[in-house]
Amino acid sequence: MLGRPKLIVAPMVDNSELPFRSLCRKYGAEAAYTPMLHSRMFSENEKYRSQEFTTCKEDRPLFVQFCANNPDLLLEAARRVEAYCDYVDINFGLYNLWKQGFHCVPVIISDEIELPYEDIHDYSEFCIFVSTSDDHREIFLIKLIRGICKEEWRNVEKAQRS
């Protein structure tokens, strides 16, 4: 099981394949994500699966990330990896929404988390932090996000782009 890891290798395009995850685990990573996989291609194409998804017994806990716009194909892809991973993550394409003018902000739910480059970046400028106890309160996140005024959203967007 996942437990409460503090060092997690995030999904990165062309960078979070098995050799990179293994190296990160050697230096203390406690969990890791695969690169984002396309659920339709993964479900329908054996060559894509064998080239894009590799793991081993030491590669645990493991999150497999899929992008999807079809729930049936997402389910099929998830079923193909369920024996080889601990969690399936869904990438909802927030970058595309952001480009269309929708507001997308990372929400970090944790009481204790160490983020990379904290000495350089002030994550509070472009992330929302929520304690785990607040997260469990009914509709807390919805109320929190709806309560952010337009000026605050503009400041977050400006920080994300810089």
**End-to-end Cα distance:** 37 Å
Helix content: 25-40%
Distinct helical segment count: 8
The rough form would be described as globular
Share of β-strand residues: 5-15%
Which value, in Å, is the CA radius of gyration? 17 Å
Indicate the structural class. Answer: alpha/beta
Overall pLDDT, averaged? 81
Count the beta strands. 7
Poorly predicted residue ranges: none
Main beta-sheet annotation: 5 strands, parallel
**H/E topology pattern:** EHEEHHEHEHEEHHH
Keywords:
162 residues; 5-stranded parallel β-sheet; two-stranded parallel ribbon; globular
Would you give an account of this structure?
- With 162 residues, the chain is α/β, with parallel strands linked by helices.
- It is 38% helix and 15% strand.
- The protein has helices at residues 18-26, 39-44, 46-52, 71-81, 94-99, 132-135, 140-146, 150-161; strands at 8-9, 31-33, 37-38, 62-67, 87-91, 107-109, 128-130.
- The strands form two sheets. Strands 1, 2, 3, 4 and 5 form a five-stranded parallel beta sheet that branches.
- Helix 1 links the parallel strand 1 and strand 2.
- The chain is globular and about 50 Å long.
- It starts with 7 loop residues before the first strand and ends with a helix.
- The mean pLDDT is 81.
